[in-house]
Structure formats: C-alpha cells, structure tokens
Amino acid sequence: MTIAPQTADLAAIQTAVEILRKGGLVAFPTETVYGLGADASNPEAVKKIFRAKKRPADHPLIVHIGRPEQLSDWAQDIPQAARELAAKFWPGPLAMVLRKQPNVPLAVTGGQQTVALRIPDNPVALSLLNAFAGGIAAPSANLYNHVSPTLAEHVVSELGDAVDMVLDGGACSVGLESTIVDLTGTQPALLRPGHITPRQLEEVLQCPVRVPQRTTTRAPGMLEIHYAPKTKARLCAAEQLAEEIVQLQKQRKRIGILSHRFGAGAAADVFVLRLPDEADEYGHALYAALRQLDNMKLDIILIEQPPDDDNWLAVNDRLRKATAAGTLIG
Ligand code: TXA
Ligand code: MG
C-alpha cells in the first residue's frame, strides 16, 4: 500500500488515477469521512470494495462525481428537486438517491434500480475526481459496521493492505457521513441524517421532507447496529452519569466517559473524554473520540446523552447506532 503525503500533490493524484483505471482501490478524504474508492463503472473493481470491507453485496454504494454535469451519466429522470439541491449544496455533504442509468453496474447499487450520488467538498477528493473524470464508488473506508474513519491513519490501521493507496488529506472537516435524501418517491425522504438538516432541504425544495423515526429502509446506515465501537457502549442521561459511575466502580470496571457537559473529576479507572457542547463540533470530533476510547481496553464506554433537538439529529442517530448492540460486536 502507498500512503501519499497530506498535501496529496499532482503526482500522487496521478498514481491514484492509474490505480483506479486498473481496477484497484484508493482511499481518499472527503469532508465527511474517508471513502474507499473504486471505478464505479467497473464491477470487478467495485466487488473488491465489498471484500475489503467485509460488507454484504446487497448494500449499495454512493457514486462520487466531480461536476454536476456528470449527474446525467449516472441518473435518469432527474427531478427538478435534484437540480435545485445540487445547485445549493454541491460540492457538499449531501447524497441524492435517483433512478439509475441502465449502464450503472448493479454491483454498485446493491441490485437496485436507484443510485446515490454526491460531489464531495474536499480539495483532494475533487482533484482525484476531476483527474479521473469518471464516477468513484466509495463507502466509508472502514470495516462493515465499524466506526467511520476521519483520519488517514484510521484507514491504514483498519484496512491495511486491502487498499492499494491512501491519499492523506488530514482530518475530515465535517466528520459524520453525508445526509442522504431519496428523490425517487412522490415526496423527498431522508434516509440518513447528516450535517445538512431536513429543514435546510425543505427551505430549498419548498416542500416537506419525510423524516422517518426509526426505520427499516434500504440504507444500512439506518440499521440499528452500525458505526459501533468494539467496546460495550451505552448512552446515559447526564443526571444519571455520576450514579452510574459509582455502580460500575463497585464492580471494578474500567470506565470511559464521553461527555460534552458533564465534568467528572479524575478517578482511578475512569477516563473522561470531553467533546464540544455544540452539535457540529461534537460531530466533527466524535468518531476519533470513539476510536480513542475503543483502543483503551475499557470495560464500558458511557456516553452522555446529548439534547434531543434538531441540531443534534445526526449525532443522536450515530450515537443510537453505536450503542445499539449493547454488547461486544466487531
Ligand atoms: O459521507 C458519505 O456519504 C461517505 C463518504 C465517503 O462519501 N460515504 C458513506 O458511504 O458513508 P457508506 O457506504 O458508508 O454509506 C452509504 C449509504 C449506505 O447507507 C447506503 O445504503 C446508502 O448510502 N445508499 C447508497 N445507494 C443507495 C440507494 N440506491 N438507495 C438507498 N440507499 C443508498
Ligand atoms: Mg459506512
């Protein structure tokens, strides 16, 4: 595996393009999380993504493009809503599900007749996409059901030699996966909350966006156990944290606390990691924090429950999934 330096210069981009053209895998930074990329028009290359991630083949991938004009290479019957959202939010952390063009491999779409598309807002990703000039299918560059990578080193430690090259673009600015909106139905539907909120979508579309509470939709990002650390993790209301810690200490547990308001004093076998008390900044830091705690050989991670309001929709979605297993997975 080659690891390109942080600036990802032209030579590195050229090498990455050659790898993609030959059907190899290139991990690259986006503003959300690192993606594990393959040539979206090459089904054999796309299958390597599923093998590297150990991801079931029926879980569709997002196709990344460099320019809005490429939309019609991948999607057909594109509604005006898609054009409006693209004009407002691309490049940016929004993926749109549309009807696929017949030539889009079913390996990319998990066998479905729809395709998810987005233009990422990251200079390295855009250089790569524009030099490659095609679509790059890329899920988050982590093992299936594990925490998404927000640094190049997360990709290296998790996927290692399964990837031919990692382009290092430093820390992802958003840090949570993109908002996904399905535009193939009679009403736009949110499939995954992200940095771009349903309200922002509604402002552009001038119509309501369906926001399912808990769902069994096609997006595996919405399966309950997802984005999970390996250590047992539990959400805990702020006012119950202190008591919870006392109980766990009695059982001689090694405890990690992920807090944003709660300020516990230092104690043996209690490690407190404090995140910002603002939703976007919290989201930016969350995955690296979960990985840090996950590497500490703790018995349990207690996560202080953030407020239940719209600003925290994406963060709360990921926290619910990270804690859904309750017990060890991975
Ligand atoms: O921020 C992101 O979207 C990152 C970066 C790399 O772009 N990618 C990402 O990919 O999170 P992944 O595979 O981890 O999540 C993509 C989500 C999945 O939940 C998948 O089911 C959904 O997009 N998706 C893709 N195509 C779809 C389709 N045709 N219909 C419904 N959901 C789809
Ligand atoms: Mg993912």
Please name the defining characteristics of this protein.
alpha/beta; 11-stranded mixed sheet; 4-stranded parallel sheet; 15 strands; globular; binds threonylcarbamoyladenylate; single chain; 330 residues; binds magnesium ion; DHBP synthase; Rossmann fold; 2 domains
Describe this structure in words.
The protein is α/β, with parallel strands linked by helices and 330 residues long. The chain has 2 domains: 204 residues, DHBP synthase, CATH 3.90.870; 90 residues, Rossmann fold (3-Layer(aba) Sandwich). It is 32% helix and 18% strand. The protein is built from 11 helices and 15 strands. The strands form 2 sheets. Strands 1, 2, 3, 4, 5, 6, 7, 8, 9, 10 and 11 form an 11-stranded mixed sheet that branches. Strands 12-15-13-14 form a 4-stranded parallel sheet, sandwiched between helices. Strand 2 and strand 3 form a beta hairpin. Helix 1 packs across helix 6. The model has no long low-confidence stretch (mean pLDDT 91). Bound molecules: threonylcarbamoyladenylate and magnesium ion (MG). The site of threonylcarbamoyladenylate (TXA) has 28 residues, from strand 6, strand 7 and strand 11.
